[in-house]
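As a warm-up, study this chain.
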Amino acid sequence: MISFENVTRRQKAVYEFIRKKIRQRGYGPTVREIGQHFGIGSPNGVVCHLKALEKKGLITREPNMSRAISLAAEPIEERGLPMAGRIAAGVLHEAIEQDERVDFDEIFDPANKNLFVLQVSGDSMIEDQITDGDYVVIRKQRTARRGQIVVVLTEENEATLKRWFPEKKRIRLEPANSSMKPIYVKNARLLGVVVGVVRKVA
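Now compare it with the structure written out below.
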């Protein structure tokens, strides 16, 4: 059980914000996001709070990784996987977070903190049997094999579900729909790889 002894009110609020973001979308906030949420103008002000939380054993951070903040422990057990939001399988859309959970206990182990869930919006992956309204289970990882179905976040904070084809000076995000063209980007943050698809049949 986590102890908040000797933790200031602001530090606890920052910790709760980090925990909420990780639960909602599968990865932590940036220093900038924390600063904007709490009205902290200086990045150094945010870093001071993060260092304090790290020193007190509440979070861990990886150097030189903008979003690499994780929880050192988790005080509340919840059923199901984090419902991080909807993911575009058509044209690119801004990533929208949701505060829900989806319970797939019979199929996937909810204790596995490397898994999260997205609901598909669009039909660009229909030839891979992933259709609008399906739930995709994502395993968090930073690398993928060429051709794997992945979730990526572009520099414009646009998220999409596509097949991953890194090329020499760009990345090709390939739809599984012969009527659609690939999306080409110079940079993209790989959030994870699809490990399962769940479809609700009416």
